[in-house]
Amino acid sequence: MNLQLILLVAAMGAVTYIPRMVPMVLLQNVQLPPFLYRFFRFIPFAALGALIFPGILFSTGDNNIDSGIVGTIVCAALAFFRLNVMLVVLGGIAAVFLWEMFIQ
Predict the structure, then answer these.
(1) Count of beta carbons in the 10 Å neighbourhood of residue 24
(2) 0.70 cut: is pTM over it?
(3) What pLDDT is stored for residue 18 in this prediction?
(4) Contact yes or no for 66/99 (Cβ under 8 A)
C-alpha cells in the first residue's frame, strides 16, 4: 500500500468521525425539554421508513408493484406480533416469492 492511500483512508475516517463525536462531547450535559426529547426519539424511525419504503415498492421491478405491496403487508403483520426481525424479513421474502410464483 502506498502512503497516499493510507492518508486518504485516515482523512476519510476523520471526516466521518469528527462530526459525530463533537456533538456527543459538547452536548452531553444538555437537558432537552420533554417535547424535544420525544421528537428526537422518533426521527430514526421516520428516516428509516422514508429511506426503505420506495425501495420496497420497486424492489421487484418498475411494473410490478403488487408483490412489493404484498411483502410489505406481510412484514407489517409479522412485525405487529413482535416476531424476531429475521422472521419478519424471511416472511416478507417468502410472501413476495409466493406471489411472484403463483399469483402473477
Answers:
(1) 8
(2) no
(3) 94
(4) yes
